[in-house]
């Protein structure tokens, strides 16, 4: 959708100056002059763009891979050598990654860049703008962007260095995870009084007060894992701060799927904080990020069905172990999946492919392998390494390319002239607040406002399925509900760890080593910061 942080000449100049001074050690005031700095609230918002652009960068690609391909939610196997990519996806599935794993490295570099860009913007804009309410609000927003990056880094890598000073290039050692948690908590709490209470168009794509409360709720729900201390009652209080605002509501069944369409945006009642994507703006600024879901999820045989301007590859799919959670035929969330026999959008015309008998099945042994063969596309649930187990390869034929149910929650964008999509990606939604509160109560948090775990779960379910309400809920019920609600939204690894399921078996993965709950510090990071030490098990 639209990037709310307008890309004009003024923003381009600020972005250039912030980027240009990345490696410069001389004082900032020797390079910049007051006449190019923001003179009003609107310009200040524009000048805050680089940290948001940095956050958008790798979120829907590398970060998605880390959070989803390491779980039972998604798998990206090779097909006839295609998508083997130096074992990168294989390692994520098997939990066999090393400190030289490509996505582990790129995600560390990306989050470090978000933090560094935020430090730059806070320093430059903080020193040059006269004190005002608008300045305090926008600086608080930038601290929230940095806090989000630190949260993601803490969640993925455990103990990480803390650096908040722009221009300080000295090596920083890692800090204990509990201390990083406390740092983020303090940053968010200090920002809360200055963050806007407004939601909708005016603050869309930017961190408001309720983004802060949502992040605190997520941290408190996971606090026992991060710090060793339970904070479930605090999670309930943080959730209540969002609920009591009255600004958000659960989208009804009629608009659940529309929340993720290419034309989504501030009109979505559930979006607390979303990352906007706009291929057109990205073409001008080079900062749109990589929102490539259709490329990875739509079968190439359905290019015409979705009117895509490119041929997708669809190398990734879900696993039966995850899809089993979609067991209610009355649930609207089933509509996010492509499965079984495929039809065009009229629901009548079959999606067909014409190939040869050998092209359909590479292991076909008949003498007529070159004979033309037309079939209706049928997406099957199981993933079978028919060609080579060692190289994670299904084969390079139609059978292989049709293995696995595909997720099209972030509906393919036919309007884009590139592989990039307009679909904005929510990081925090109101339904997450509802389910986090339910879970926190189940885990021992103090119930409030007359709400119980079962009443909260049913509040969500009443907007998702026509099936009967639940009479009771367990933690496993909440887990299954989260699988249905947040598929493809980068939360599943976090959930699996908290529910004690990350060491389980799925697909071809059997590794139960608990050290795999965090990733290694990448080799390249040691070159930049020799004060780092490696995580246990690596």
From TrEMBL:
Record InterPro entries: SusD-like_N, SusD_RagB_dom, TPR-like_helical_dom_sf
Every SusD-like N-terminal domain range: 78-221
Pfam families the record matches: SusD-like_3 (PF14322), SusD_RagB (PF07980)
Start and end residues of each RagB/SusD domain: 237-538
Keywords: Cell outer membrane, Membrane, Signal
GO CC, alphabetical: cell outer membrane
Compartment annotation: Cell outer membrane
Similarity comment: Belongs to the SusD family.
Protein name in UniProt: RagB/SusD family nutrient uptake outer membrane protein
